Amino acid sequence: MRTTKVHNYNVVTLETWVKPYVTSSTHQEVMSNVEGGGHSIGLLNGKPYSRFYLSGAYRYCYGNELSLNQWSHIATTFDGNTIIFYVNGVKEGELKYSGSACFWGLFRVF
């Protein structure tokens, strides 16, 4: 998806399936829209995360380390006040932070 306008949302849900084969100390983006802001879902040191660009900086919310070679459903929500991170339907992380999530540019799935 490519958009030409900045969209600010106070309610957002993002979800995807992942099957990690290796643990990496660098960010492994799974889905991303971070051209000058935005959001992403990825893995870092085996832990899934979501990040939202809020109030001029990225805010991260993490889940617990995933099992290798196994499919997991990861999802995140943002309601304008709290980022919540889920793995296989179980809440694993929460970050309180108020603001609007910005979505723009090219949406990529890796």
Give the gist of this structure.
The chain is an all-beta fold. The protein has strands spanning 2-9, 12-18, 28-33, 39-44, 47-54, 57-62, 72-78, 82-87, 90-96, 101-106, 108-109. A 5-stranded antiparallel β-sheet has the order 6-5-4-3-11, with no helix packed on it. A 4-stranded antiparallel β-sheet has the order 2-7-8-9, with no helix packed on it. Strands 1-10 form a two-stranded antiparallel ribbon.
Structure explained in plain terms:
With 110 residues, the chain is mostly beta strands. It has one domain (2-109): Jelly Rolls, CATH 2.60.120. 0% of the residues lie in helices and 63% in strands. The chain is built from no helices and eleven strands. It has strands at 2-9, 12-18, 28-33, 39-44, 47-54, 57-62, 72-78, 82-87, 90-96, 101-106, 108-109. The strands form three sheets. A five-stranded antiparallel beta sheet has the order 6-5-4-3-11, with no helix packed on it. Strand 8 and strand 9 (90-96) form a beta hairpin. The two termini are 14 Å apart. Residues 1-6 and 104-110 have low confidence and may be disordered.
Cα-atom radius of gyration: 13 Å
In total, the number of domains comes to 1
Tally of helical runs: 0
Mean pLDDT: 80
What is the helix fraction of residues, given as a range? Answer: under 10%
Looking at the overall shape, the CATH architecture is Sandwich
The general outline is: globular
Q: In percent, how much strand structure appears in the residues?
A: over 45%
Q: What is the CATH topology descriptor?
A: Jelly Rolls
Q: What summary fits the major beta sheet?
A: 5 strands, antiparallel
Q: What's the SSE pattern?
A: EEEEEEEEEEE
Strand order of the largest sheet: 6-5-4-3-11
